[in-house]
Amino acid sequence: MIRLKAFSYFEPASLKEASEILTQHKGEAYPLAGGTDLLVRMKREAIRPAALVNLKRIRELNGIQSEKDGGMRIGALTTIADIENSTVVHTSHPVLAQAAGVLGAQPLRNLATIGGNIGRASPASDMAPSLMVLQARVATEGASGPGEREIDKVFAGPGSTTLSDGEIMTAFYFPAMAPATGAAYLKMGRRSGGGDCALVGVAALLTLGSGEARAVRIAMSSVGPTPRRANKAEAVILSGTITEERMRDAARVAAEEAAPITDMRCSASYRKEIIKVLTFRALQEANQKAQGGQAT
Ligand SMILES: Cc1cc2nc3c(=O)[nH]c(=O)nc-3n(C[C@H](O)[C@H](O)[C@H](O)COP(=O)(O)OP(=O)(O)OC[C@H]3O[C@@H](n4cnc5c(N)ncnc54)[C@H](O)[C@@H]3O)c2cc1C
To answer: Of the residues 120, 185, 190, 192, which should be mutated to test ligand 1's pocket, given the most ligand atoms within 8 Å of the CB?
Structure first.
C-alpha cells in the first residue's frame, strides 16, 4: 500500500479563508478539487504538499448558469460529468459538453472538475482547447482580491500556470456564441472507446457570413508544452471562401505550426499526422453546424 507523506488538511468555508491559507503556505499548499490528478501525483511523490485546501465547502464555486446576454458561467468546482450532461451547456455552448464527454472514463468525470482540469495545466487537457475557441475568461480570487484573465493567459508551461500563490480560480465565463456559429472538439487517444489522455485534441469554431468565415478559432492540445491556438491555420481560413481545399490547407498549416514531442505514447511525426486529420474534421464539423444557422 502506498502511504502519503504527512500534510495539513483544511476545509475552509469561504474563498477569503481558502486564499489566506494558501498564501500563508507560500506555494507549499495546493487547492484540492476532485483530487483525480493531485492525489495521484502525491502518491507518485511527484509533489509533496505541506497542506491541502479542500475547496468543496465553498458554495459559490459550484454550478452552471446562463447569463442575461446569452453568455454562461461555470463555477470552477463543477464536475466534468455535470458539464457533459447540462442542458444549459448543450443549449448555449455545446462544444464544451462534447469535450467533457470524451475526458477520461465516466468514474473520473464524476469526480474531476473544470477548475482542476485547467489548474493542472496539462498539455493534454481536453477542456482547454474548447475554452480557448470560446474565448473563456477565468475569474480568480487571491491575496490581492478578485481578478480575471483570458484563458490563453493561464498556461505557463507543462503543469504550470500563471496563478500566483493563494490565487484560486472561481469561475469560467463564456461570451454568447454569435449566430451562424458552429464548434467542434475532436480527440484521438490510444483506445477507441476513450478513457485515456489525448494523443492530440483539436477544437475549431467557425462563424459564417456570405459563405466566408467571419471568425475562426482553432486550438490544440498535446501539441507542445501548453494547449495553444493555431493562429497561422486560422489565417488560412480567413483568406477566402470556405472550401474543402482551404480547410485541408489550414489543417496542414496547423500541423506545421505545432511542436509536438515524441513520448512513450506516440511519436512527434505521428502526432503531426493526427493534427492534420483532426483539424480538417473539426473544421468540417464546425462548418456543418454553423450552416445549420444556430450556435451549435
Ligand atoms: C486515469 C486518468 C485519466 C485521465 N484522463 C484525462 C483525460 O482524458 N483528459 C484530461 O484532460 N485529463 C485527464 N486526466 C487528468 C485529470 O484527472 C483531469 O485533468 C481532471 O480534470 C482534474 O480535475 P480535479 O478536479 O480532479 O483536479 P485536482 O486533482 O483536484 O487538481 C488538479 C490541479 O489543479 C489545482 N486546482 C484545482 N482546482 C483549482 C482551482 N479552483 N483554482 C486553482 N487551482 C486549482 C490543484 O491544486 C492541482 O494542482 C486523467 C487522470 C487520470 C488519473
So the answer is: 120
Residue keyed to cell 468525470: 109
- The string of pLDDT tens digits covering residues 105-158 is 999 999 999 999 999 999 999 999 999 999 999 999 998 899 999 999 999 999
Strands across the sheet containing 145-150: 64-66, 72-75, 168-174, 137-142, 145-150
38 pocket-lining for ligand 1 (C-beta < 6 Å): yes
Q: CA-CA distance, 45 to 174, in Å (whole number)?
A: 36
| Residue 135 Cα to ligand 1 middle (Å) | 21
Closest ligand 1 atom to 33 CA? 30
Residue 247 C-alpha to ligand 1 middle, in angstroms? 33
What pLDDT, in 10s, does the model give residues 190-242?
A: 776 566 788 999 999 999 998 789 999 999 999 999 999 999 999 999 999 99
pTM metric for this prediction: 0.95
